[in-house]
Amino acid sequence: MLFNVSQLLRERVGSRREYRISEPSVVLERGAEPVGVEGTALLTRTQSGVLVQARVLTTARDACSRCLRDVEYPVRLDIEEEYVPTIDPVTGVRLPEPEDPEAFRIDQRHHLDLSEAVREYLVAAEAMQPLCRPDCAGLCPVCGADRNVDRCGCEVQTPDPRWAALARLRVPEGS
């Protein structure tokens, strides 16, 4: 997801470019499996750089929060970030560092790489407790067996009676 914005940086503020994103295999994190990324990106010249407004569809991978099986689910990301150049496109002079040390940068060859923004937005969009299926039974707390595969026969421990008052405060599921 690399865009050459050298010409856009030479144009007036408000100039735009629209791109279709279709990357079948993008590695967003070191050691992670590649994912596909599809969508559109609108790049607009601003006073200080290039504003990227992208809408992409990709896949999040995680472990089920109950049984630890691998889970994949689609995620739509709406990205809006401003990228600042590191080199002046006309003179070739190195520009001063931006005020925000976390700002996305356009590299010295005037390439804007959308991969890091997609990775950051994907991390923020991941499910807090992903499930392999809504009725996942999880793992047995005694022996660790996957209750989706087979019942293990372990005796379920009764809770400590000192916690009974708190148990009465529990809101029933589905309420």
SSE order in H/E notation? EHEEEEEEHH
Query: How many DSSP-defined strands?
Result: 7
Q: Mean pLDDT, nearest integer?
A: 90
What proportion of the residues form beta strands (DSSP E)?
25-35%
The oligomeric status of these chains comes to single chain
Structural class by sheet pairing and helices:
mainly beta
Note the main sheet. 5 strands, mixed
Kindly, what is the distance between the CA atoms of the first and last residues, rounded to a whole number of angstroms?
44 Å
Low-confidence stretches: none
DSSP helix fraction: 10-25%
Rg estimate, integer Å: 24 Å
The tally of helices reads 3
**Overall shape:** elongated
- The main sheet orders its strands as 2-3-4-5-6
Write structural notes for this entry:
- With 175 residues, the chain is mainly β.
- 13% of the residues lie in helices and 35% in strands.
- The protein has 3 helices and 7 strands, in the order βαββββββαα.
- Strands 2-3-4-5-6 form a 5-stranded mixed beta sheet. Strands 1-7 form a two-stranded antiparallel sheet.
- Strand 4 (50-63) and strand 5 (70-85) form a beta hairpin.
- The longest helix has 11 residues, at 115-125.
- It starts with a strand and ends in a 6-residue tail after the last helix.
- The mean pLDDT is 90.
